[in-house]
Amino acid sequence: MKGDYGVRALVELAHRYGEGQVQSATIANAQSIPEPYLDQLLTTLRRAGFIRSVRGPQGGHALIRDPQDLRLSEVISALEGSLAPIACLDDPEGCRKTTSCCLRPVWQEIEAATLRVLESITIADLAERERAGSGARYSI
For 73-91, what is each residue's pLDDT tens digit? Predict the structure, then answer.
């Protein structure tokens, strides 16, 4: 859920890129994310250097990187951690069969394929897909 909700929050901010701060409640409502959970994710996204957060009545959140330059791979890694489908890819010493494992190359291929897909998609791409799927977006 972290990855899904976190990406959706960034997509919402991408829709409003360059327009100033967006309040958590607005993001939560637009993307159907529980606000308390969203607040936790926004902290992670801020620490990862994707957004800026300002407190107070006029505060909110905004992307600090152009959505066209923000790759899905970076976001998922920041929110979820390793993209490895199995722990032994990150810690080869933790497995007794590292050198003789017939499955290791398969897991490596899966990890590489996943990374290729995530590297090929930006937050701007996802925002455009959402716009195309739901028609024009209007903000009040």
Answer: 999 999 999 888 888 888 8
DSSP line for 92-126: GGG-TTTTT-SSHHHHHHHHHHHHHHHHT-BHHHH
Q: How far is CA 112 from the centre of its chain?
A: 18
Strands (E), 1-140: 51-54, 60-63
Q: What is the pLDDT of residues 22-50, one digit of tens each?
A: 999 999 999 999 999 999 999 999 999 99
Rg (CA), the chain: 18
Count CB neighbours of 134 within 10 A: 8
